[in-house]
UniProtKB/TrEMBL annotation:
The protein, known as: Alpha-galactosidase
Organism annotation: Timema douglasi (Walking stick)
Keywords recorded for this protein, A-Z: Disulfide bond, Glycosidase, Hydrolase
Gene Ontology biological process terms from the UniProt entry: glycoside catabolic process; oligosaccharide metabolic process
Family from the record: Belongs to the glycosyl hydrolase 27 family.
Length: 118
């Protein structure tokens, strides 16, 4: 079965139940779990996510060079915006770098590396 068709079908089923469809990805060569990341395929992956009907994109930062994050995360956000499909863009970039950064291209961002439960 074609994986692209499978994901789109799954997304359609999720949407038919009144839910939103989200996906996890990583800016580096690999995700934190070792699966392929978006590096080198930013525009292609943004377009694919739009074709699949993705509503929420979580972009992590494992296996990413810190100096690449300042340009890479906004660049991927630009490609997501160019698709014309509204998607929430959630980034882990600020959790990896301290100081001021341009977060104007982001919808949400992670401030801490660890979540503590009370």
């Amino acid at each position: 079965m074609d994986p692209n068709a499978s994901v789109h079908i799954y997304s359609t089923v999720v949407h038919s139940k009144g839910l939103l469809f989200g996906i996890y990805e990583d800016y580096g060569n690999y995700t934190c779990g070792g699966y392929p990341g978006v590096l080198g395929h930013l525009e292609q992956d943004a377009n694919t996510f739009a074709e699949w009907g993705v509503d929420y994109v979580k972009l992590d930062g494992c296996y990413t060079e810190l100096e690449d994050m300042a340009t890479g995360y906004p660049e991927f956000g630009m490609y997501l915006n160019r698709t014309g499909r509204p998607m929430v863009y959630s980034c882990s970039w600020p959790a990896y770098q301290e100081g001021e950064m341009d977060v104007s291209s982001l919808c949400q961002w992670q401030l801490k590396k660890t979540v503590y439960f009370s």
